[in-house]
Amino acid sequence: MMTNRDRNATVGLWRTAALGLVLAAILSGCANSRMTTGSVNRPSGKPVAEMSAGELSSAADQLGKGYTRNPADKATGLRYAEVLQMGGRTDQSLAVMRKLAIEHPADRQVLAAYGKALAAAGQLEPALDAVRRAQTPEYPDWKLLSAEGAILDQLGKSGDARALYRRALDMKPNEPTILSNLGMSFLLEGDLRGAETYMRSAASAPGADSRVRQNLALVVGLQGRFEEAEKLARQELSPDQAEANVAYLRSMLAQQNAWNDLKRDEKKKAN
After folding, report:
1. Is 138 helix (H, G, I), strand (E, B) or coil?
2. Which Gene3D superfamilies match (predicted)?
3. Fewer CB atoms inside 10 Å of the end CB: C or N, the chain?
4. Tens place of pLDDT per residue across the chain (271 aa)
């Protein structure tokens, strides 16, 4: 169990890590099933979440050529923005989605993806507006409810966010992306046990992908259980992707010296 000193030393880490992971969850929550993180239809057939940095760059170059030929094409624009986002080119992804939203101002899928891009760029209030405009009250979309909740969490409105997650779960019971967002909500508050409870439910739910397990790995690692965290980070992935996940996990835990502080405490407890 973490001491109060551990909690104080890592509160900034929780916020930083949770921000990135909640926004990653938005990637899988905003769009329809053919545009979710880790399952975007690619010419190569390889999920975006499993692409290396080089593969993402190559895919972005290929899609960029098609986008340049026809910037108003919805399918190409959405795929291009997704690959740019996964490659860390947030500003460029947002520029693509902004132009696409102008071309398709009433398209729910475009508005949802635009909201995702705005949120990833830290523009949370505009992102919330875009996601809400994509929603239709008479026929609500659980993905958009979950995405709206993730943005509200970042705005410090956890009560409103969790109410939306529960509405989304009523519509889509045991959905891993919603459960993962709920876990992130607790992580934002520094409640690691609560976060782990929902993350484990998400990871064991049908359809859970490697990103959900990576979120769980981070929560487990933040509690000092490093071997278990690395095992989770390597699950069901190629060796290259597994190493990338472990490196990411270590980089998150290394912020503010949290990795070393927690590891020293773990050794002391073992002696």
Report:
1. coil
2. Tetratricopeptide repeat domain
3. C
4. 444 444 444 444 445 444 444 444 444 434 333 333 333 344 455 666 667 778 888 999 999 999 999 999 999 999 999 999 888 899 999 999 999 999 999 899 999 999 989 998 889 999 999 999 999 888 899 999 999 999 999 899 999 999 999 999 999 999 999 999 999 999 988 899 999 999 999 999 998 887 888 889 888 988 888 889 888 888 766 777 777 777 777 776 666 455 456 556 656 666 6
**Structure token pair of residue 179:** 């459960």
Task: Identify residue 81 by its one-letter amino acid code.
Answer: A
Distance CA 27, CA 18 (A): 14
Phi, psi torsion values for 236, nearest 5 degrees: 50, 35
Q: Which domains does the chain have, with CATH numbers?
A: 1-30+142-271 (1.25.40.10), 32-134 (1.25.40.10)
What's at 121, amino acid-wise? A
Q: How many residues does the chain have?
A: 271
